[in-house]
Amino acid sequence: MLFSLFYLPGYLFFTAASDFRDFNSMLYNVQLWVILIPQVLTVLFLIHRDGQLDFPSFGIVRPNMRDIPFFLASVAGTAALVILIRLLVGLLPEAPLAGEPPGMLSDKAMILPVFFSAMLTGYSEEIFFRSYLFTRLENLDRGKWSRIILVNLIFATGHLYDGLAGGLNAFIFGGYFSYLYTRKKNIHIPAIIHGLYNFFALILSLYV
Questions:
Q1: Where in 126-186 does DSSP place strands (E)?
Q2: 3-class DSSP assignment, residue 165
Q3: How does pLDDT run across 90-102, given as a tens digit for each residue?
Q4: For an engineered disulfide with 156, which of 57, 125, 161, 171 has Cβ 3.0 to 4.6 Å away?
């Protein structure tokens, strides 16, 4: 229900505007913030109202300097995963690169707003899928791997606006982000990496 009420409109918004050149518009970024910020605040409110679990139980903790080595290794792992997926997809006949939109960023003046949009998207999706939904399924006595598969099937479904390749890409990366979350139970690690992935996927088009 929470997915339908608060996240489905955002995915429909992307479906209606699947050309990522729209990120060159400040208005588009502001519209995105108007969708994402209430999503984050709503999930945080629901966690706050929970009578059994506290914020750390959902992986919402203060950043820890001791997690920096793991974070850097996770960034390297994300880069390796990107390269691997693109190499595998490239083996398919006339297949588009997974998750590659028809248009990209071209206005350098929009780098800062796009960075905020990318990071906010990362936090919005990770707080819901990895923090809230994953933890809720744990309370239903779901096993670790069944939770990872179920959560990321839902996550991938929400990215089918980018086609089957985009959905598969989301499932693979969602699984990786779930692994990062379960290792440290710190939502900042997958959320920041998710946001950076979104950001660099956009700004690299300025120079490539």
A1: none
A2: helix
A3: 775 544 444 444 4
A4: 171
